Amino acid sequence: MAVEFDFDEFLLLAEESMEKTIIVLKDELSGIRVGRANPLLLEKVKVDYYGSMTPITQVANISVPEPRMLTISPWEKSMISVIEKAILTSDIGLTPSNDGKIIRLIFPELTTERRQNLVKSISKIGEESKIAIRQIRRTQNDMIKKLEKDSTITEDDQKDLEKNIQDLTDKYIKNIDSILAIKEKEIMEK
Question: What is the mean pLDDT of the chain?
């Protein structure tokens, strides 16, 4: 008995892979500093909390009292120096200052040149994401061709699936362009 090919499942798996690429892109872009305080910048910074590497967000309250300042209020006073050290050794490029109770991170104003360099960086990250989407398309199309060759699907099914995969690819490439445009606007705002 021949196994029925599930077209919807095939397309769903392709879309899930493309969606993961978008999640990775958004995660990478959230770590790019734009001159305004953004608590997401600290999500990847981890501290040694009783022998376990823990995100700062799980050992302190983070707030944005001013557009260019983050304050970090550790739940335990003993964590101030540990958090400060983690920020200094991270690659976020900010120097923390503390008053014994809270840590302040001041975001300097970005120069025009720095803004332009950041836009170039996000463009490169975006292009890498587009390449990943196209690679997913290529992999799916290769599978489709193999299915047709093995007579699992018809030639018409192959053409329909390839068109659907291309439509998904176009949709996610447009999504990437939209995400990049929003981030570029955010970077270029003064």
Answer: 88
